[in-house]
Sequence to fold (213 residues):
Amino acid sequence: MKKSEMPILYSFRRCPYAIRARLALLVAQQTVVLREIVLRDKPKEFLNTSPSETVPCLVLKDEVIDESLDIMIWALKMKDPKNWLKMPDNGYEIIKMIDNEFKDLLDKTKYSTRYANEDVTENRKFAVNILIKLEESMRGKYLFGDEPSLCDIAIFPFVRQFAFIDKAFFDNLGWRKLSAWLDSFIESKLFIECQHKFKQWHPADLEVHFPLK
Ligand SMILES: N[C@@H](CCC(=O)N[C@@H](CS)C(=O)NCC(=O)O)C(=O)O
Fold:
């Protein structure tokens, strides 16, 4: 593919939404031009492109995909070597629940000082309850069997973020499956590759590609 034809991904290394988009691009072997964004210093090229002004944002020749889940689905429709798209419909409901209810509790736990009127202990408990239900519904090592699906991948970065707010607390919860589930992603080649550190993008920079060649 010629340079100018390559999709552009505006990304931010630590963002859980951007992480899941990069994981899907990686597994689908879709090479993009990566532009690492610093959220407090968004470049005008990004602001002029992303309707929501959030990362990730994938710029195709005639379309801008501004939602991480849509980027995942776009990439996997190109190539889905691990059959991540093969999952029951309720996988999408679980993603929605984690993106909304769980994400809200995650933020209220992680950034509790920003929520003066919220009870952090209660919110953390509600978040843990969601994860317990998730674990109880796991049909194998993963949500729908012994192989991960789109749903596992899409929710993993948020569970990881929650676990690392207080890893000792999380580990002490006595998980039967969820700790191994989480570790399998954290230790995977895919995640390590997806967390490569890119420098903040500036318009005059040479193109950097993701996945790295
Ligand atoms: N719905 C979006 C949400 C993405 C999102 O909220 N990303 C955060 C970073 S983790 C962001 O860009 N926030 C904008 C900001 O902080 O200015 C998606 O799934 O792609």
About this structure: The first strand starts at residue 8 and ends at 11. The first helix runs from residue 16 to 27.
